[in-house]
Amino acid sequence: MRRIPMTQAEPGMTLAEAVNYSTGMILAGAGVVLTETMIDRMLKAGIGSVVIEGESGDSDGELQAVLESLPNLFRHHRSNAFMMTLHNMLRSYFRMKLAESAAAAAARKAAQEAAPDAEGQENGTNGAAASSPDSGEGA
Questions:
Q1: Which one-letter DSSP state was computed for residue 10?
Q2: Which domain does 58 fall in, by range?
Q3: What is the total count of domains within the chain?
Q4: Where are the alpha helices (DSSP H) in 1-139?
């Protein structure tokens, strides 16, 4: 199971948990396969994220879903200074975690791109060293 933002929901995905309106009424039950119409209806209803079946591996999507749901979670507490401070702290925290995740992904990508270059340089050096004696023998 993994939570994804509604913007990442696609037809054919299966809900792992029921989706409810803010009133508590069920919009779609667990096990329902999403269709384009259902996704549109959920977006119009203000549903920020859904839990779908499958492996959890999209932590950025989960972080983004939580970040997007914060305004809805705190909607009844706008006049409470403590709750709004908590809301702002959580928003800052999740934004920071998303930035850290993006930086880590960029670093992994750079390392992967650099790894073949390093191997090529090693092979080139080894190949040059191996060809020098061969060319010396041939001359």
A1: -
A2: 2-117
A3: 1
A4: 36-44, 59-73, 81-138
